[in-house]
Amino acid sequence: SHDVTLFQSQELGNYERAIDLYSEMRVLARDGGLAREEFAAAERIGVIFALIENHEAAAKALEDTLEILQKLELPRKRDEHDAEIRCLAALGTILYKTGKSFESIFRYETALAISKASIHRDKAVECNVLVSLGQVFNSLGHFSRAIAIHTQALEISRENDDISLQACCHGSLGLAHGCI
């Protein structure tokens, strides 16, 4: 029992091993014609690279994920639809962190458009994307635009009765108003 616990604790947080396993999953899925499994592996690889702040590798894996998603048969399953929005938002964040603000705006706006058009609309995810988009506009000095976006996010967070997101929106609005 102690040996199992020790082994498990050594394996937790082993990002390199996780990337290797997901990469193997991806190759097997691709070779087996299993696009849904390949997309899941690619997305997970991107998330891990983002966690360890390897932005270039994260962006590549997330771009690959989006390419694989384009090949899936329609209609897409809800989790695949949600994954596309997550990938676009994650790419927006990575692009912003690497100084590519205008490219990040495009990714965030694409994620929002997909979310708003969805019958499976997840307003909490949409709110988080709006907050991130507002932060980009704030950093570019477009304070009025940032305020409008953060206000929209605040309205959505209130509709969802999400206190945590409301607090985040108030903080983002305070920052933008403080910069004017």
Largest sheet: none
- Unreliable sequence segments: none
* Percent of residues in beta strands: under 5%
Series of secondary-structure elements, N-terminal to C-terminal: HHHHHHHHH
| Cα radius of gyration in angstroms | 18 Å
Residues in helix, %:
over 70%
What is the subunit organization of this protein?
single chain
The number of helical elements comes to: 9
Distance between the termini: 60 Å
Instruction: Tell me the structural class.
Output: mainly alpha
Question: How many β-strand runs?
Answer: 0
Q: Which overall shape is indicated by the principal axes computed on the Cα atoms? A: globular
Please state the average pLDDT score: 88
Describe the protein in words.
83% of the residues lie in helices and 0% in strands. It is built from nine helices and no strands. The protein has helices at 2-11, 15-31, 35-51, 55-71, 78-97, 101-117, 123-139, 143-159, 163-179. The mean pLDDT is 88.
Supply database-style keywords.
9 helices, globular, mainly alpha, 180 residues, 83% helix
Can you lay out the helices and strands and say which pair or pack?
Layout: H1 2-11, H2 15-31, H3 35-51, H4 55-71, H5 78-97, H6 101-117, H7 123-139, H8 143-159, H9 163-179
Helix pairs in contact: 2-3, 3-4, 3-5, 4-5, 5-6, 5-7, 6-7, 7-8, 7-9, 8-9
Question: How would you summarize what this structure contains?
Answer:
By secondary structure, this protein is mainly alpha-helical. 83% of the residues lie in helices and 0% in strands.
